Fold this protein.
Amino acid sequence: MLETATAEPDVSGVIAEFDHACLGHDDHVVFPDLTLHISQGDRIALLGRSGVGKSTLLDALRTRLGDQGAWCPQANALVPTLSAYHNIYMGRLAHFSRWQNLTNLLRPNRACWQEISGLADMLGLDGLLRRQVDQLSGGQQQRVAIARALYQKRPVFIGDEPVASVDPRQGARLLELINTRHQTCVVALHQRELALAHFDRIIGLDEGRIIIDAPASELTSHDLDVLYVTD
Amino acid sequence: MSRTDAPAGWFSWLRGDNVGARLLRLTLIMLAIMLVLLPLADLSITTRDPWKELWRMLQGMILPDITATESPLHALLLTIAFALWGVMLGIVLGFPLALIFMRSRLVRTLCAFVRAIHEIFWALLFLQVFGLSAITALAAIALPYAATFAKVYAEILAQIDRGPSQTLSPRTDRLSRFFYTELPLAWQRLSGYTRYRFECALRASVLLGFVGLPTLGYYLESAFRQGRYHEGGALLWAFYLLIALLPWWAHRRLLVPWLVGTAFLLGPWPSVNPTLLWQFVSHDIWPQPLLEGDFAALPQWFGRLPDLLPAIGNTLLLGLMSTVGSLLVCLLAWPLVSRHFGNRTTRTMGRGALIVMRSTPELLLAFILLLLTGPSLLPAWIALSLHNGALIAFLAARHADEVTPGLPGIRGINLYSHELLPRIYPGILALLFYRAEVIMRETALLGMLGVVTLGFQIDSSFEYLMFDQAVALLMVTAVINMAVDVLSRRLRPDALPERRHQPRPAPVGDSV
């Protein structure tokens, strides 16, 4: 695997760091002065109102981590005309030869099929692998997107609201699964209960700044209210 | 509203800086220019008794004679064969070009040039070398279609959702990336567009009959020209049925059987004389003075060209008139097929009428009208406006059907003017300006019927075997069409939905 310098844990175990960084897209600055260190083994939940810059931060992090990060984007970004199986397989396109990729489109590779069915069973997608993705429900599509990220088998999981369209109980199960398969994860969420229950570190964003960065054990749901005050 | 606000005056809407005012100004300016120039257009009716002729034609349509044509089935199948294989070859040539289209200015210019010349003119050109053969027919369709496919496929591929591609590892090879994200994401639109072009190719294939290839158009032309309207009626019905039944006979699953089956029909294959071909390419189509290096004689050569200015003027004028005419036809016609108006019966009838207008090849429509009015701009104007107006009306109605009116219980003209038209008008104008390029190409084409546009001069140059002149005129036509294309692209409102590129995280400033 290609290893980028920033993604390699250094002596202190930091895998990505922003030092007074200025982040944004196009000409629009979202974070004028961002300082953030992410260490190996961190399980981070990213909280904040919508439009506050969670996606921008995750995108920047994903670019930094390169091939160390398994990316599960917002709104899934699946290919609607391909089957669930092929969408999950896409997680490792770069890993296989182009000829295998092409033949796999016509006739699924047996070993890959077995591995992906195992993954699908865990995510409650059994029996749906042959289905074209646009025929799946929103929750099922989201699980396909998670499966694709898990199939990448990379150390850091980066998810942008990966459990937004499933019910809380299933959301909890999915986050557990993500946690068992990744040492480090950074996940944007909007359910604060899930954040407090399944993550070690909470980062709260507001107006281009980090206003909360604390261990989950030191926070209560009430402490997070400040993130959602509209004023 | 505050008390001091005066009520808006008559022209205040026009002064605004919003999209609505801009489009309204654009429309009115176009209309005004057309009205000012209209007296210059020859709109005379020269036939003595057009109504009697029209009545005879209608009789022919009502009582078609299916036994009159010798081998109608062969003509029908040959029409399909040319269209199908022409489109196939167009895809084979055009798809690879689409992949480099956005990166190569050379390819873009070349495609714009090839596209700017109508299928029939390509046919006239190839006819000189390959005669009345399958090569002429296939090349005449495949070449301009390849250029169109290159452009449209490239645009479709550029508009796909970038999200899935961004989830891939940056090290993913190009081929896998293309087959797993780009192609499946674009597939539906690619195949939808190709299907639409196949319908166009069927019309083009019919038109090839006008230059002598034995497709439906050949028999149609001779039947109508000689006043055998019962035979003409039968052939016309055959063509409408062909178009109306497209979804059944041109099903995707039947593609391979059709390709194999029609392959045997293609013909005749010419015996090409390489010497003559070389003579044509290297000598015949070039101005004599240029070949001899006698540049002093060039002005004289140009002087011998037929009077270009009236032809160019007529071409541009007819183009403008037909663009405005199409807009008017569309504005009147789209409610006929929209779910917001009328009942099931009126919609069915409206749809029938629009399908007839849309699927009749423009040249054929103009040809029939010309028999009624005699050669002037009038039949050409009506034909182009009806054909293109009906085409845009369909798309406008589909667009309007997606709109749910905000106010319940609003109906009729109020619904049209307040709820629907303001929402779909930008889309209509965008389609109209897309179409302007096609209208211009067809304008030149109608010259073949004796309307004095550029096409008329091209046709007669070919007839007198003055190939150097014909090719020069084709160049002029192409340049004008390309200019109109650029102009209409400038004017076009960006109302067509284009997916914004996903904002990429990019470091702003230099602190990263």
Summary: Confidence is low (pLDDT under 50) at residues 495-512 of chain B.
